[in-house]
Fold each of these.
Amino acid sequence: MSAESVPSQATPSFPFPLQEGERVLELCRRHWWFLWPRSILLLLVAVVPVGFAAWLLSEIDVLDDLGVFFWIAAALWLGYWGVRLFFNWYRYHNDIWVVTNQRIIDSFKAHPFSKRVATADLVNIQDMSVLKSGIVPTILGFGDVVCETAGAGTGTFRIIGIPRPEAVQLLIDRERDRERMRGP
């Protein structure tokens, strides 16, 4: 999934409040590469053993004898991997970065009972760099935007694995300069 622009008329729901006068300029999610290969692997780990076991037990002619017991065990196995697949999707969907006209916001929810939100004011961003390391990120066009901040104890702010990181860096740079020119 690519970095998504949020139109001004849209009022998306975020797991954090926006400040007065703050406008969302860009909503960024990790590249689809962080969701689909792992999801396919989890699906294969769930389905292949059940299919193989059903085939093997059928070949040795004991599947009918095991009947309900086999299918209960298979359902529990598939249920476990289904929950893991759901949380894989949940983490992907709830790991967002939002660039506004005032700050960058990193919001992550690993599960429904956790939430981590970190922010960095645009005026505190000193240096930025884009990192693309490896064949897959280079070919698929995703990478990290690393922002060095001047705030006390914050240090580095990373936007990880997003599509078109150069465009996001340019947007942050432009808005940072505009915010600095505006003054206090």
Amino acid sequence: MFLENASRKGYIEVICGSMFSGKTEELIRRLKRAKFANQRVEIFKPKIDVRYSDEDVVSHDSNAIRSTPVDSSGNILLMSADVDVVGIDEAQFFDQNLVEVCRQFFDRGIIDVCRQLADSGIRVIVAGLDMDYRGVPFGPMPALMATAEYVTKVHAICVRCGNLAHHSHRLTADSKLVMLGEKDTYEPICRHCFRELYNKEK
């Protein structure tokens, strides 16, 4: 289905960082620029992400762009024909069952979807958390970053010391890997403050 667009040059861009680092803001900026250039754009997000809107991709600063919520990454392929640019927000939440059970295989879930789109000539812009609340690389993000032509790592500001933050510290005792939340649930902190908290909790 996608090889007919192979004359175009597709590629993958990844925007990653901690909570409150401006990932979605940057994703929206790039997608709006593409729309302004009269490119055909489709935007997707995981259906579970309903924090600000059921349908829109919304940044913490309340900037928004219309998107299509999908249950799985495979649906993105079905809805991306005849487009120039595909945007994907919160990529770390896609296909968690595949990531946990089959992570040793490269051609799985969101990673393979992005590769197929780029191979067909589509510009793919992906945003997501690079690490989970434990400081562990999050789901498909490491493989997406390795596959991408361009990787942009954005940073928040540590709420405890003011240094650059790249950890998303969870403020609750819940140990679920996937837990949507805002400032009452997470805070951005730097490496030093994260290690101090980690050592206290041991």
Amino acid sequence: MTFPTPSTPNDAPLVIVVDDDLSMREALSSLIRSAGLRVETWASAAEFLDRLQRPVNCPISGPACLVLDVRMPGMGGLELQQRLAERSGRPWPIVFITGHGDIPMTVRAMRAGAIEFLPKPFSDQDLLGAIDLALAQARSAQHDEAARQSVQARFDTLTPREREVLLLMVQGLRNKLTADRLGISEVTVKVHRHHVMEKMRASSLPMLVDMVDRLGLRGGAGAGG
């Protein structure tokens, strides 16, 4: 196992290499560092999963991606890909490398969200290009999650009644129908709608709909948090 060296900027993107071949880990680590990226190397999928269980000493922050060998003793790269997706609820950006790949294996990896599947031997340029794509996806996912958390924080400030009004608003119900549905007056509905727009910082109904979609609440109950 190798953690980032002090010479690498702490805010540089992180590339995590999991490969049972020591010489391959060392070569990949050197190449990736030469591109100005942080690197962690692990000899097995089990060791990396154990690292995720104990992130206190060196938490993963900022954009990160994985470079995984497909075939390793014990848990292989494809199984690790599945385990990580189950843990996080979304696919990690992964670049697979292998000396024993085939078409079904490649299809399985790509369908599960892999960025690239590189057969050994591969060129430095091909690997670094695939890593660039993986880190771009990681940055995008990080941005989306930050936006979702911001919307969630606003949603959490709504009262239970305001949440009910919000969900009826994005369904397109007018004030009268909303009032009938909730058993309140139209005037009260208008007050709640104003509060919803203000607290959610939405300047239009389409913007509000987009926020609700980010939280996955359309057609559902107003839970959150």
